[in-house]
Specification:
- By secondary structure, this protein is of the alpha/beta class.
- It has nine helices and ten strands.
- The chain has two domains: 8-192, Rossmann fold; 203-271, no CATH class.
- The chain is elongated, with a radius of gyration of 20 Å.
- The N and C termini lie far apart (42 Å).
- One of its GO terms (molecular function) is protein serine/threonine kinase activity.
């Protein structure tokens, strides 16, 4: 008797994370503990290597070390990336991690293990993680790419797992693969593409094409007053210049810049009339 879950009766023992045929696939993999993590990722990687497919693994450093140790010498053939560094800004994961790897290898199927969400992601970062997951479906639509996204179901809140169900068409959980009944990436994208709520005392600057340098100087002065060191101020200057310039050019000619401290982080938010739909 055929199981009601998608391809469950013919799925490989590690849960059917691998593709059944050519084309794009984006399953979420729910795991609990190291044993399940390795059981759901390593066979997926090994299958790709056996088929001479390029494989990248972009996960937090402790998980990266776990996978590398399990792979042994075969790890040398895998592109290993510490997601806590390369994906610190979730908005850069698609262009700088996923597309950078896949776009250099367009003549073959590509496999990627990407873990953008882990315990410790801040409240400011998390909405961008959901947007990232939703936009993967557009960024690789029609491509021969498989992106397997592990989620620590034993440590992450239930609402995070709900968002994973909304942004991934298939789920792998406890060795079974099934279609996600909650899959609705556009709804998840729209819900998370809302301005952050700035705290009382946030610095505010309204800019246009004539005040771009002043907006940058304003942000630097406010960040310096909040204890930001000179090295990070240089990065901040580039970020603010890029955000405000793109806003002026592509989103109506101006907007509002807000800046505040959140723990040891400086949060910069630019609001305008634009809308991001192209990953």
């Amino acid at each position: 008797m055929r199981d009601s879950t998608d391809d469950a009766s013919s799925a490989p023992p590690y849960g059917g994370a691998g593709p059944a045929g050519p084309g794009f696939a984006h399953p979420a993999f729910f795991y609990r503990g190291d044993r399940e993590y390795l059981a759901g990722t390593v066979p997926f990687i090994q299958e790709g290597l056996s088929a001479s497919e390029p494989v990248a693994v972009a996960v937090p450093a402790p998980r990266l070390a776990l996978i590398a140790a399990e792979l042994g010498p075969a790890a040398d053939a895998v592109h290993l990336v510490d997601m806590t560094l390369a994906g610190r800004n979730p908005g850069r994961i698609i262009p700088s991690v996923l597309r950078a790897f896949a776009d250099a290898r367009t003549d073959v199927r590509v496999r990627i293990v990407g873990e953008p969400v882990w315990p410790g992601r801040t409240a400011a970062e998390y909405p961008a993680c959901v947007q990232h997951e939703a936009l993967i479906n557009e960024a690789f639509d029609g491509r021969d790419v498989v992106v397997l996204c592990p989620y620590d179901a034993g440590a992450l809140p239930a609402d995070v797992l709900d968002d994973a169900r909304a942004t991934h068409p298939f789920l792998v959980d406890r060795g079974r693969r099934s279609a996600s009944d909650a899959y609705d990436p556009r709804k998840a994208l729209d819900r998370c593409n809302e301005p952050l709520l700035p705290p009382p005392g946030a610095a505010v600057f309204r800019y246009d094409a004539d005040t771009l340098p002043a907006a940058r100087d304003f942000a630097l002065a406010e960040a310096r007053e909040r204890g930001t060191d000179e090295v990070r101020l240089q990065d901040l200057a580039l970020v603010v210049a890029e955000l405000t310039t793109n806003s002026v050019v592509h989103a109506g000619g101006g907007g509002t810049l807000r800046l505040w401290a959140q723990g040891a982080q400086i949060v910069v938010q630019v609001e305008d009339r634009g809308r991001l739909s192209d990953p």
